[in-house]
Model the fold of this input.
Amino acid sequence: MNQAPRRHNKPTQLSGPDGTAIPVVPLRHRGRWVVGALAILAFAWLGMSLATNPNIRWNKVAEYLFFPKILDGLWVTLMISVLATLLGLVLGIILAIMKLAHNPVLNWLSTLYIWFFRGTPVLVQLIFWYNLAFLFPSLVIQIPFTNIGYMWNTNDVMTGFNAALLGLGLNLAAYFAETVRAGIQAVDAGQTEAAYALGMTPGKRMRKIVLPQALRIIIPPTGNEFISMLKTTSLVYVVAGNDLMTNASQIYKQNNLIMELLIVASLWYMLMTAVATYFQTKLEARFGADAVRLVRKPGFLLRKVTGTPSAAAHPRRPADDVAAAGKDLS
Amino acid sequence: MTTETRQLHVASHGVTKSFGSHQVLAGVDFTVAAGEVSCIVGPSGSGKSTFLRCLNALETYDDGTLLVEGQHVGYEYRDGRYYEWNTRQFAAFRSRIGMVFQRFNLFGHLNAEENVACALTEVKGLSKSAARARALEELAKVGLAEHAHKRPHQLSGGQQQRVAIARALAMDPEIMLFDEPTSALDPELVDEVLEAMKALARAGMTMVVVTHEMGFAREVANTVHFFDAGVIVESGTPAEVLANPQRDRTKAFLAKVL
Done:
């Protein structure tokens, strides 16, 4: 933050003891100019050495930027990110509720799950799922004591894509469960009492009263999880999930344009992150307080499309929403 | 079940409750007849609120008999045994009892109308439109029809508490419990809530009110109960208990608050 008051707050003159105006000479921040100039020089030198490096063939970067295999990988990366995040969110909410349940068995299982998935590296988990066939050559869903059921070859099911989805989703769930638990516990106990006093069962209280309010607290970190997930998907490289990173690496292993393709991949990751950050900022600022509506029936999308009066008639500043959210929860 | 308990909305006999080694209720004997407004007064920490919360099973009691609306609170009596209620039995029981809290406890993610309509759809199974109509009707009764679309944080404390009263009344309760309903309000907002409660009393609602508002107790209550150290020290009409207390503890307390 800026320590000095803003420029427009500074008086250009002050009235002296006899009432006449005396001009004010502003303090010159010579140090700032010097440091700023040095920093620009350093960055310009770095940028130049990269841009003019004869070993980087920029025309190749441009050529591969929209290469079909790269675009395919981009799509897979997005799909894995979205689906794994969704899987993580749903499982995370279930785990959080298990952890808060009165049933000690559910409690203990949730704790065990979280400990296991947070205690092992996600890379290990990805390779584990991909190689599940070593443990279970076939996957069987069968009604016990009958012959009715289905059997799959594990290697057909555990494609790189599915292994990535499971590995990343199950891992995120363990982290997200803690966020959800904190969100649920942050909802005032009075809300629960009021719900019970009106005759709601514990389940109804959770679904209709507590979770919608907990979501206001939970939603903003969700954006962060997704942004983080976009880049974590590059680990899918180890299980050949045909994502952006895998495809880029397959190309550079053939033509040896390692740096060029890493730049191509990085540019796309940066673009996706920028877009996701933009939406996350909007989500936090505009729907932070109303994020709760996301889970209520007629639907957030419908409201966005039709532009309901409540949203249109009361345009609110982000600061209001933050304050309002705080008040609502108190 | 005797005919005597059937006429009484609340019949408590020897109810006790401890938090750890601290005894909060030390044998409460207390009855509320149909249409009676019963005010519970007494110093902080005397067990008033805990007892009120026992009445709709928000708090458990350790011993004694507690009959509310003809039911043994928390237990079903069958074949010489008390069977603990399941969550559905608790919910069904509580849906018949209105409760207004000190800190309003309006649902923060719902506007005034939705706060009132919520339990109508979720608990009573009313259609959305029927619940909405009923909610608006109840809000109009407490003078808040034009605030139906405001969220709790956009309402003053007095308005929030009136929404809370409307929310409880919409369930058609057989008895209303008030837990210090004006204690969290700014002084100038107390009257609007008390007026709503007085109107309710005039309409014949059976009410149990834990309060520090001696003026309200004097004017509205049929019976005043003075709580101290987990027991009811003195009970009677407002004239008896508030104007002419017999016990020293009641006299000492009233000397401070009046």
